Structure formats: structure tokens, C-alpha cells
Amino acid sequence: MTNEELKTRITELVPSAAFEEGGEWINVNVDPGEWPGFARQLRSDAGLQFDYLFCLTCVDWKTHLAMVYHLSSTLFRHNLVVKAKLDNHTPQIETVSHIWKTAELHEREVYEMFGVNFLNHPDLRLLILPEGWEGKNPMRKDFEDPVNMIKL
Amino acid sequence: MLEEVATSTEGDLVINVGPQHPATHGVLHLVITLNGETIKKVEPHLGYIHRSIEKMCESLTYRQFIYVTSRMDYLSAHINNHACALCVEKAMQIEVPERAQVIRVIMDELTRIASHELWWGAMAMDIGAFTPFFHAFRERETINDIMEETCGARLTMNYMVPGGVMIDLHPDFQRKVKEFIKLFRSKVHEYDELVTGNIIFRSRMKDVGFLSKEDAISFGCTGPTARGSGVSCDIRKLYPYDVYNKVQFEEVLETGGDSLARYMVRIREMHQSISIIEQLIDNIPEGDFQAKTKAVLKLPKGEFYTRVETARGELGLYIVSEGATTPYRIKFRSPGFSNLSALDTMARGSKLGDLVAMMGTLDLVIPDIDR
């Protein structure tokens, strides 16, 4: 599908989806509550078939967190970026690890680095940080570590 | 981890492979649940070499951050740099001179051969054959010498700058590369004689660590790991960058999905890389090796994503810019991280001794996984 066709199809699926202008791929903002249903449709819709989640990450915008999912279809070769705004203090969103298996490890990384709670994740615990890590999440903008971090 | 052994239930045995283990080629820690000798579960524990490169990049300028990325996948250092340079060029709409593009691609392919050579030697050693290691390093050394002459470094070359390459090629470069191609062609049949056709080797690789096509896509596997399962995912073909759309090469695909298929993909890829270099080496255009760029680079506000094909698979670079001289957020989508996640599915039900063969054909580089 071309970007325009994708836009039309996605608006049919999620009427409240907000599109961002610019960028080579379609950027769509969805409500975290709508994400699980939307994700399932993206994967299974005959014309979309986004079977390959090639990047899953989070951006700390200080006022809120934004989950960013980069999706691609190995069949149609179209790409899509889905974003979901999360609350800064108690960020939580449904897991997609049952739809794209790669999400399991990626979500664990986002969980420890940004503190996002992935609901219904099969095994949500620390992956990279040492056991018993206490304190803030290292990739948050307000993270301070006066001992190990050197400001240039 | 004696407690873990003691607390395991139902006759299962939990053992640790790594973080210091010769077959993990780095500080990878796998906790393996065994029933007898059969693997029930493989669980990776990461972070032993986590340097927080993404956080570090947030305080580095767009000229500086490139060099940190050489330390991720150090065997594809040049290709990692390539991703960064491409992303900055895309964001700032810098036209790269044709000469620089050709130099970059030749260097990329030399890096790929060097990486595959090291993988081939190390993997054979894991399986129990020591001799191939020396054969692989003999040819790899020639590549490192070529790199050293032009870039001044053998492994982490840091040859790339936004807009081109740092310095022009060494006058001897073309002659040396042609000599290497001749040498490689005369030696490469030894690889097949030593390992590929070896009956013991084949029986250790065949039907070991099967990964289906659907699983490969779902786990986000890329590179030779996915292509061994028949997934077409070569970024050089799908989203060509620099001069990859002007050279003839074939995307290597195998359908076996087992360790042998992944092995064959890498062996055949080396031949493709040689063919790409052969097409380009006599046709390096004259001209600038670097575009004229400002001393201080400022990316426009927005989000930029580039993908390149490293020796291990698809490396994605996601830059979020706020219009400053340093990035607001950087994410490296490293191929090793996703490829490793498939190990559990591959290994379940296999024997413990086969795990080394699976890890070998995944071609894991731990600093690339941890970042």
C-alpha cells in the first residue's frame, strides 16, 4: 500500500488516530487504550499484514513518555510508525509480545530504562540492569548519577 | 550459582553458561534449564558490557557520536559508522560525492568479509576444529592491513564522516585490494575442503537449531540468521543506500532454517561481497572524497530513521532531534539483540552439546547486543 492508502485504511480502523506530517513513513498517534486492538488488526488485516516489528522504543519528553513502534510488512514492504503517549508518573501500556515475539525482550529493556509498565507481559523483569537495581530509570531525562556520569 | 542448582525442582537442572565462557565469545550469560541432557529453556542475562551508548550519545555532537558506534558491533565497525553518517546526511540533505559513496561501499564489503572470516574460524573452533581459525585469520589479516594503510586503524576504523570519508584512499589501495581478491579466490576453496564438505561438521550442523520462517520474522531476526530461514531481508537490496543500487549482486537465501543453512548463507555471502568489490575497484570515480559541510552540524527538528545491512543483520538508527547540536534521543536497533531472542525457541528440545553450534551460527557479538 502507498502511504495515502495506508492512511485511509488506518482511519477506517481507528477513527481517532492522529497523523503527524513530515517524515518518510506515516506517523500515527493512538490512545494507549486503543493500542492492543489496533496492534492485532495491523498484524492480521489482509491488506496490512505488519508482521515485522523492527524497532520498539520510548522517548522521554519530560512532560510525558512516548512509545514508538516501527512496523514493516515483509509481504507488502510498507512501513508504519505508531506512537502512544503515556503518563509520566505511572506509565503503562498493553504488551504486544504475543503479537510480535521480538517485543518481549525489547519491552523488558524499555521497562527498566524508562519505567514503563507493560500490562500482561509474560516475564517483566530487569534485563540489562543488575539484579536489585534501585532508584530511577537510567534513560529518563531527569536521571542523575554524580559518580558515574561525566558531563562534557 | 549453587543455590540455583539446589532449588531446582522436578529433576530439572539449571546451569549457567557464561558470563565467562569461551563459546559465548564475550560476556554473555545464559541460564539453561535442562532435563537430563535436553534443553527445556534458555534465558539470556544481559548487561555485562552495557556502556549506555544511547545515553552517552545524547551529550555528543553529530560529528562525535559516530565514533562511539564503532564500539557496538566492533566487527562491523565501519558499517555502524555508515548508518550514522547516512542518518545525518538524510536529515541535513547533504549530497555525498560519488567517489566517497564508492569508497564507503568497498570498505563495507571488506568489513563484511573480515567479519564473516572471523565468524567462520571461531565457529569451527567452537565445534571442535581448530585449524580453520588460522586459515580464516590468514586472509582476514590482509584486509586489516588494507584498512590500516588507509584509515590508520585495523578494527575500529572511524573512517566515516557526515558527507563522505575522512581522508582519501591510500595510493596503494586499489593494487592491494586486487591482490586480496586474487588471494581470496585461490584460498576460498580450502574453506569448503576443510569444513563445508566435512561429514562430521555437516552432521553436527544439519537439522540443529531449526528456526521457521514465521518465527524468524516474528522474532525480528535479520541478516544471515533470517536469510537461512528463507526470509528476504537484505537492506542493501530492499532499501539501497549509496551505490548498492548500481552494483550487481544476489541476495543469498537458504530455506533449510537450520544451522547448516545459516552457515551456507554466510559462506555464499562472502563470494557476493567479493563480486561487489570487483565491480567497483576499477571504477572509483575521481573527485572529492568529502562534501563541504559546516563545522557544527545542527539537525532540523524531527525524527530520522536509517537502516543498513551489517554483517549480522539490519542495524537501525533512530534519531530524535530538537534542532540542537546534540541529539535528543538516539536508539540503536541492533541486529544481535533480536537474533538472540530467537535462541530459546531454537534450542528447546535439543541437546546441550548442540547449543554451541546454534550460538555459533547466530554470530553473536555481545557489545552489539548490550550497547
Structure in words:
The complex is a heterodimer of chains A (152) and B (371). Chain A has one domain (3-119): NADH:ubiquinone oxidoreductase Nqo5 subunit (Beta Polymerase, domain 2, 2-Layer Sandwich). Chain A has 3 helices and 7 strands, in the order αββαββββαβ. Chain A has helices at 3-13, 35-44, 103-114; strands at residues 18-20, 26-30, 52-60, 65-72, 79-86, 92-94, 117-119. In chain A, the strands form 2 sheets. Chain A has a 5-stranded mixed sheet with strand order 1-2-5-4-3, with helices on one face. In chain A, strand 6, helix 3 and strand 7 (117-119) form a beta-alpha-beta unit. The mean pLDDT of chain A is 85. Chain B has one domain (49-370): Cytochrome-c3 Hydrogenase, chain B. The model of chain B is unreliable at 1-7 (pLDDT under 50). Chain B has helices spanning 2-7, 53-57, 65-68, 77-92, 98-127, 131-151, 173-196, 199-205, 213-218, 223-227, 235-238, 259-281, 335-341, 343-347, 355-362, 366-370; strands at residues 13-17, 29-35, 38-45, 160-161, 164-165, 302-309, 314-321, 329-333. Chain B starts with a helix and ends with a helix. With 371 residues, chain B is α+β, with helices and mostly antiparallel strands. The longest helix of chain B has 30 residues, at 98-127. Chain B is globular. The interface between A and B is medium-sized, with 31 and 37 residues.
